[in-house]
Specification:
The complex is a heterotrimer of chains A (535), B (162) and C (494). Chain A is an alpha/beta fold. Chain A is built from 21 helices and 15 strands. Chain B is mainly β. The chains are: A alpha/beta (535), B mainly beta (162), C alpha+beta (494). At the B-C interface, strand 1, strand 2, strand 3, strand 4 and strand 6 of B face strand 18, helix 13, helix 14, helix 18 and helix 19 of C.
Chain lengths: 535, 162, 494
């Protein structure tokens, strides 16, 4: 496989400008992540220390095998919701290695409103368990939650994809033979009690762990019975009387050691055989991505320069290099795993759409996972293209992509606008993982485009009604629309709403994809099959 | 979770910094490049061949390196075995029965597993051991007395100084 | 002597010395019978011997001291002679006599010689009577006042100890006349407490003495030779740990004088078989008779290595009636030999015996080296027997080579599963005073600080930690069972 030849000049003025811009974005990302991970009110940290509890992230670090990676998902979930009261949506989710097995780790964060579950917490947990189901990934729950955040109960309880979905997913995981372990460090109240209840294995810490449908105050209110936490749902009771939990642990460290021992008893997964070869770092320095990604969403750049800084040895076997050139397709390896990459080098035309559909079919035939690197403003519009059938050609690409049986992974590298988002495996298309760079934007159209489109509609409306167009009014409309769009288009808004599985420092893309691909190989893949392609 | 050993009685933390392409370990923060399979009874550490002999007696490892003998054991985390973990304080009756003999009196020190009381139930005699090291704080059984399932027959407290 | 002296010999011993004797019996074409207590059924000596007989007793040691049972075993197996080794019944005159009375041969001296030398007083008297220097001494015969008056006349320093005692119990060193009375009082009361006999004894105290002993062989008919001396000064808890031959830094004239003195005693006693005459040697060159051991010594291999004589073979041949010429010159000495006693003990805790299990045993081999042992992997090391596990003996053309070879061999010796003095022995051998041959019986305590285990270097400690970790199943899994890409990716957080 040939190496890509980079044509970037690292000493150019543009490179240095882009580099400075993107490094600033990454510094901001790191700062926001740091705050979401560690910035807590002093009294919450003090309470934790008083209870002799470890912070949730420390529990995770101790659970993981030493010297192995941890891919945290959606760290900035809820960062623009609830007035910032629920950092990381009060729940930590990530993938790591425990006793040599890759597992999903999901941990309540007792320093966020006692680990209360917000609506976006529900969404995040459901998504974590969806990932577990789609990828047959065992789950370790680190339980320490006060239960649902009651003021927002209507948003977290009744609907299909919130509270109940967690327990539905847990049940299905167990049915599928995907193992779940609950380590109960703190309280598991009400719905939360079903987390250990529906886990195949559970450990509970003496003194601080408790599992009950109703805590002592609720019991008192309901029946008048006065009962202590220990009697009602403590470790001793649940491991010797009720059997709700399996092992008592003397302390948190002991619980984690027990947890590691339990995971060590699980069989090692039989993954489907993807093409794999010994990994090789990229030839080109991934930090040069900072100088490649432009400082303006409208500036185009060659995605091959990005690919060269993500794939093994910067080697890329390009497919149809001279046809449909606005969609770069080709084969490469990421951390040794063979993948088919689709990357946007401009707007999608008829030929590039057909090329994409064809390439997706090839990858399905070869069991090659697909990686979509999005920088797309949409499919080409205009009379000529409609006449050539741009819609039906775009539909071919969407059909082929949707019906793919191989695992799909998407990275939002810059813009993701319009139907291009669909063809390039946006959130709705069940990719196994979707990550975004902090510079990226998602929307039906770009802010400028939307503002101009709305202004055009408004002007037409005024003229139809025989009125005069006030340029100042139109200007105000344009800037208003642009501002509103700008906020919702931002990567921070997307990730806050869990439209992705987390923001990535571009340099981390290779590792994140490597782990995501590895995880995806746990689930068997079916036979290729598609709907009706419109020719 | 870092891997902790007791080496010649002193705690020693070993971290795995990298496995590939070469094994990089840190011992109490100092980094070493290790080639574990340099030969029979040999490893290479930072390019230097270290010959050793090892014997395991129970949980204890004896190592002889460069004319010096070291004793190492795994710093205990306490596993799933042994039932109750070390925090359990109660000697409980696993079934209803009679107290046949009381081996330990209040105030006496017991080691984990050491018989505290022998009971008879369903024509079977059974010695009930201490769930952990400690001192008998309260003895709730007397010879000839009967009890129900799950009755607490003795309670332990920690040894002084713990 | 080409025809075997005996057809079958029983070894009334165990451990390394039983194995050592069996080796010579094998070489001589003589069948061997071992004895063992049920707890040592798997022991090396029991498996090495042609036959093994179980002996019983309340304790394993008691079984090995049950002469009647051992003689019965010899008769039952048809053994014609009994080799007693050292320790146990080897210096028991009653046993030696009982062996003869049972119609068997005792491979050792006449029981009367054993009795003569077994009593400290009679042995001293005998030595003095035959012109061998003994330390001036007085035995308490009347009251303490009489004793102190006579003792004071010997001069100082003076050693006072129980008349009935042995070992180091109740010994007091008196350096000035005005301390004598109090010391005598204390020694008397301790003697009474330890031995039930309040009589005490005083003799000239030799400062920083060396322990020099001479190996002799006699045929019981007046034919006696000496096989030169051994230096056994390095001791702990009054027991030897390192012996060598010849003694370093011993002027030829003095060496001759000591060996001749030993020969005089052996000749006077019409000594039969192998024996050792022990002396203490002062820094001033004065030497005094200490005692005579009427048996094979633990440290006999150093003599064998410098003379090329198999002492066990000589013992057997003499027992079978071989004669020695009356005035044979001592054999020529070739090079230098050193023996280290490998003991299950903790030098850091005052050499207290240790127990454990032999998890791994590996020892070097070389033409200049002997490893004498009775060990098997898996064997439990308990307080049932003496803590000495084995002996390592090296030979070299000169003392320095022998020392260096010994240090190298000790480093290579792997005996894991019980705390031993192996590393300690290396430090003794490598000590400048030892290398200089500046030895005396207080060597171990005089150099205590320098011989203490230095804390390992940081790197040595870290290497040990790495090897220990690699010996843990869980750690090995952590290192080698991590799947890709995680193993290659290593520690990474996004």
């Amino acid at each position: 496989m040939d190496r890509l030849q980079s044509t970037i000049s690292v000493s150019s003025e543009a490179f240095r400008r882009h580099d400075a811009h993107n490094r600033r974005l990454v510094v901001e990302l790191r700062a926001r992540q740091e705050a979401a991970r560690h910035q807590r009110p002093a009294r919450d940290l003090e309470r934790l220390a008083r209870q002799k509890k470890m912070p949730a992230r420390q529990r995770i670090e101790k659970l993981l095998d030493p010297g192995t990676p941890f891919l945290e998902l959606s760290t900035l979930a809820a960062n623009m919701a609830y007035g910032g009261d629920a950092p990381s949506a009060s729940s930590i989710v990530g993938i790591g290695v425990v006793a040599g097995r890759e597992v999903m780790i999901r941990a309540d964060d007792p320093t966020v409103k006692g680990g209360a579950w917000y609506p976006l917490t529900m969404k995040k947990i459901v998504r974590a368990l969806d990932i577990a189901m789609e990828n047959r990934l065992p789950v370790v729950h680190l339980c320490d939650s006060a239960g649902g955040f009651l003021p927002l109960q209507s948003e977290l309880f009744p609907d299909k994809y919130v509270g109940g979905r967690i327990f539905r997913n847990q049940s299905l995981l167990s049915k599928m033979g995907v193992k779940q372990l609950a380590l109960v460090f703190g309280h598991c109240t009400a719905g939360g009690a079903y987390i250990p209840g529906l886990s195949d294995y559970s450990v509970i810490v003496r003194g601080s762990g408790a599992v009950f449908l109703g805590g002592p105050p609720l019991v008192k209110a309901a029946t008048g019975e006065e009962v202590t936490v220990e009697e009602l749902g403590g470790a001793e009771m649940h491991t010797s009387v009720s059997g709700t939990c399996d092992w008592p642990a003397d302390n948190e460290e002991h619980a984690i050691a027990l947890g590691r021992e339990i995971v060590a008893q699980w069989g090692r997964p039989k993954k489907w055989e993807a093409q794999w070869q010994a990994p090789e770092p990229p030839l080109y320095d991934p930090t040069e991505l900072y100088g490649i990604i432009p400082d303006d969403i409208k500036t185009s750049f060659d995605m091959r320069e990005v690919i060269a800084r993500i794939v093994d040895g910067s080697r890329f076997h390009e497919y149809k290099p001279n046809y449909g050139t606005t969609l770069v397709c080709g084969f490469a390896h990421i951390w040794g795993f063979k993948v088919g990459i689709l990357a946007n080098n401009g707007v999608l035309f008829n030929d590039s759409s057909i090329k994409g559909a064809h390439f997706i079919e090839l990858c399905n035939q070869n069991n090659t996972p697909l990686v979509f690197l999005q920088n797309i403003t949409g499919y080409m519009v205009g009379r000529e293209y409609e006449r050539r059938g741009i819609t039906k050609d775009g539909a071919k690409m969407i059909m082929a992509q949707t019906c793919s049986k191989v695992p799909k992974f998407t990275v939002m590298c810059n813009g993701s606008f319009g139907a291009g988002n669909y063809g390039m495996c946006g959130r709705a298309f069940d990719g196994r993982f979707l990550f975004a760079w902090p510079n990226s934007q998602i929307g039906v159209m770009g802010g400028d485009q939307a503002a101009k489109t709305l202004a055009e509609v408004k002007i037409n409306q005024i003229r139809r009604n025989g009125g005069d167009v006030d340029p100042q009014e139109i200007e105000a409309l344009i800037s208003q629309t642009r501002a509103a769009y700008q906020q919702q288009l931002s990567a921070y808004y997307s990730t806050s709403e869990l439209w992705d599985d987390g923001l990535l420092d571009p340099v981390d893309t290779r590792n994140a994809l490597g782990m995501a691909i590895s995880v995806s190989l746990n689930a068997p893949i079916g036979e290729p099959g598609y709907g009706v392609f419109r020719f | 979770m870092p891997f902790t050993l007791l080496l010649d009685g002193e705690p020693c933390e070993i971290e795995i910094l990298a496995r590939q392409p070469r094994l990089l370990l840190a011992v109490n923060g100092r980094t070493y490049l290790v080639e574990p399979k340099a030969g029979d009874g040999m490893v290479r550490i930072d390019g230097e061949t270290v010959a050793f002999a090892r014997a395991e007696i129970g949980e204890t490892q004896f190592l002889r390196i460069a004319g010096r003998t070291h004793v190492a054991e795994r710093a205990g985390q306490g596993g799933a075995g042994g039932g109750g973990g070390s925090g359990a304080n109660a000697v409980k009756a696993p079934m209803p029965g009679l107290v046949i003999r009381v081996h330990k009196q209040a105030g006496e020190a017991v080691a984990r597993g050491e018989a505290v009381i022998t009971i008879e139930s369903m024509k079977l005699q059974m010695a009930l051991g201490a769930p952990r090291d400690g001192v008998i704080a309260t003895l709730l059984a007397e010879e000839g007395g009967s009890f129900d399932k799950d009755a607490v027959l003795a309670l332990l407290v920690s040894l002084e100084g713990e | 002597m080409n025809t075997p002296a005996f057809s079958k010999v029983l070894i009334a011993n165990r451990g390394e010395i039983a194995c050592r004797v069996i080796r010579t019996l094998d070489a001589m074409g003589i069948a061997s019978v071992a004895i063992h207590h049920p707890v040592e059924a798997a022991a090396r000596h029991a498996r090495m011997a042609g036959e093994a007989v179980v002996i019983h007793g309340d304790t394993p040691v008691a079984a090995h001291l049950d002469g009647a049972q051992i003689i019965a075993a010899a008769r039952a197996t048809g053994a014609e002679a009994i080799h007693p080794g050292y320790g146990f019944l080897s210096e028991n005159a009653g046993f030696a006599r009982a062996v003869i009375e049972a119609g068997l041969t005792f491979i050792g001296p006449d029981h009367a010689t054993i009795a003569l030398m077994g009593d400290k007083i009679s042995a001293r008297t005998f030595a003095a009577a035959h012109g061998v220097p003994v330390a001036p001494s007085v035995l308490q015969t009347a009251d303490l006042a009489d004793f102190t008056a006579r003792a004071g006349k010997i001069g100082f320093p003076l050693l006072i100890k129980a008349a009935a005692g042995g070992g180091g119990k109740g010994m007091i060193i008196v350096r000035h006349a005005d301390e004598l009375q109090a010391a005598a009082n204390r020694a008397a009361s301790e003697a009474l407490r330890y031995f039930g006999d309040g009589r005490i004894y005083a003799e000239t105290y030799v400062e920083a003495p060396r322990h020099i002993e001479v190996q002799v062989l006699g045929d019981g008919e007046g034919g006696v030779i000496h096989l030169h001396e051994r230096e056994c000064s390095v001791q702990r808890r009054f027991q030897k740990i390192i012996e060598e031959a010849p003694a370093p830094n011993l002027p030829p004239a003095l060496r001759e004088e000591i060996c001749t003195a030993a020969l005089r005693i052996a000749m006077a006693a019409r000594y039969r078989n192998a024996g050792t005459v022990e002396f203490i040697l002062g820094a001033d060159g004065r030497f005094f008779f200490l005692e005579m051991n009427t048996r094979l010594q633990v440290e006999h291999p150093v003599t064998e290595m410098i003379t090329g004589i198999d002492l066990v073979r000589a013992q057997i041949e003499i027992a079978a009636g071989a004669a020695l010429p009356a005035a044979l010159p001592a054999p020529r000495i070739s090079g230098h030999a050193i023996e280290c006693r490998i003991c299950a003990e903790d030098p850091a805790r005052d050499f207290l015996p240790e127990s454990g299990r032999i998890g791994r045993l590996a020892f070097p081999t070389a033409p200049w080296l002997r490893f004498e042992h009775g060990l098997t992997e898996g064997q439990a090391i308990t307080a049932d027997f003496d803590p000495m596990l084995a002996k390592l003996v090296t030979h070299g053309p000169d003392r320095e080579t022998a020392i260096n070879r010994m240090i190298e061999a000790l480093k290579q010796l792997t005996l894991l599963g019980v705390t031993t003095n192996i590393d300690y022995l290396i430090r003794v051998l490598d000590h400048p005073a030892f290398r200089a041959g500046d030895l005396h019986t207080g060597f171990v305590s005089a150099h205590g600080a320098a011989l203490a285990l230095p804390p390992p270097g940081r790197q040595a400690r870290d290497h040990a930690a790495i090897l220990a970790a690699l010996g843990c199943r869980e750690f090995v899994d952590l290192v080698f069972a991590t799947p890709e890409p995680y193993a290659s990716m290593g520690l990474w957080r996004n």
